[in-house]
Amino acid sequence: MTSIHHSKAGDRILFGLSLFALLWSFGVLQAGGFTTSINAGMAFLDWPLSNGSINPPGWLTESDKFAEHSHRLAATGLGILTILIAIAHRLRETRRGVRIAAYSTLALVVAQGGLGALRVLLDQLNVGGDSNIKALSFAIGHAINAQLTVALLACVTLTHTRLWQRAEEEPAPAQSRALGVTTLVLLLLVILAAAVMRQNRVTLWTTGEMTTLWGYFIPAAGEGWMWTINLLHRGGALLAGISMVLFANSLNGLQLHHYRRLPSPQWAAGVSIILAVILSLQILLGVLAIDRPANPHPRTIHLMVAAALLATTACATLLCFRGAKNSA
After folding, report:
1. Virtual torsion, Cα 240, 246, 248, 254, nearest 10 deg
2. Rounded Cα gap, residues 230 and 183, in angstroms
3. Are 173 and 131 in a shared domain?
4. Residue 225: what pLDDT?
5. What is the model's pLDDT at position 76?
6. Of the candidates 160, 194, 225, which is a domain's last residue?
7. Are residues 141 and 169 part of one domain?
């Protein structure tokens, strides 16, 4: 069996390329999130060009056009990077699972482009009609797929690190695997609710009547499905946060059923700290997004940190399964 840890330049190249693409993907996410935050998704009615050009008039001076066109340019760059990643893994990577993950990343990016195109071309402004449900459905899919793309790209990057080797040599506690999967599912449900909220522009903010901590989890205004989606997002975030705390504790060897600690791998402490830091930042941004509804930046950064949280949780869970055969 081929070793999973190499010191060859080829592996450094794969790591560097994957890491660069991962960092670039957050730039794409920022541009897309800001575009949604300021409702600029239809600044251009055509696709893939913007008003028939790659350099449309006004995109450097008008905020809505800048947001949308910069998102398209950044997304194109990510597409090129994932093509290079797929080719490089085909040529240099011997592990079949890692190659498949690299190919899958490219597939997600291609799908992301298709979802973005359908969101624009099927919009009510282009096709008419009384409802915009088709375009909004593709927009929601576009938002969720973006998060999945970042998470998978992070996992591909992880496989080219020393941490990947250490996880096999130092397996995590068995209960960590179940808690990791549970946290991932909850995070995805929270992200789904958030995408429905943002794309339908039914985010309900507080109105200065906040009196208790629970006000941050229970929408202060609205009714019907709008209020329900907001409640699911905020309440789901609370559950996901609790699950993540339990997951982080399990990585540190806390045996919940017996209230005692078991030996934990050295790498787990660092990962659990990273999870705690990102979760704390995400909570702060959620509060800022509620308290400052007119400011699009907290909501945009909140979206980006959600991607970081999902990606880190996915990597941590993958590390737990990595050492599963040695922890039985």
Report:
1. -170
2. 20
3. no
4. 77
5. 97
6. 160
7. no
Give the model confidence (pLDDT) of 271-300 as tens digits: 889 999 999 999 999 888 888 878 899 999
Regarding whether 174 and 288 lie in a shared domain, the answer is yes
Does 41 share its domain with 149? yes
User: Over the stretch 135-144, which tens digit does the pLDDT of each residue have?
Assistant: 999 999 999 9
Residue 308 near residue 277, CB atoms below 8 Å: no
326 contacts 171 by C-beta, under 8 angstroms: yes
Nearest to 21 by CA among 141, 102, 100, 97: 102
Q: Which residues of the chain have pLDDT under 70?
A: 1-10, 203-217, 219-223, 253-264, 323-328
Looking at 142, 160, 178, the residue that finishes a domain is 160
- The domain total for the chain is 2
Please report the pLDDT score of residue 174 as a whole number: 78
- Provide the domain limits for residue 25: 1-160
Q: How far is CA 290 from CA 39, 94, 207, 263, 299, in A?
A: 18, 48, 9, 41, 9
CB of 35 within 8 A of CB of 71?
yes
Kindly state the tokens that stand for 214: 């629970």
Same domain, 155 and 201: no
Residues in the chain, total: 328
Question: How many other β-carbons are positioned within 10 Å of the β-carbon of residue 198?
Answer: 20
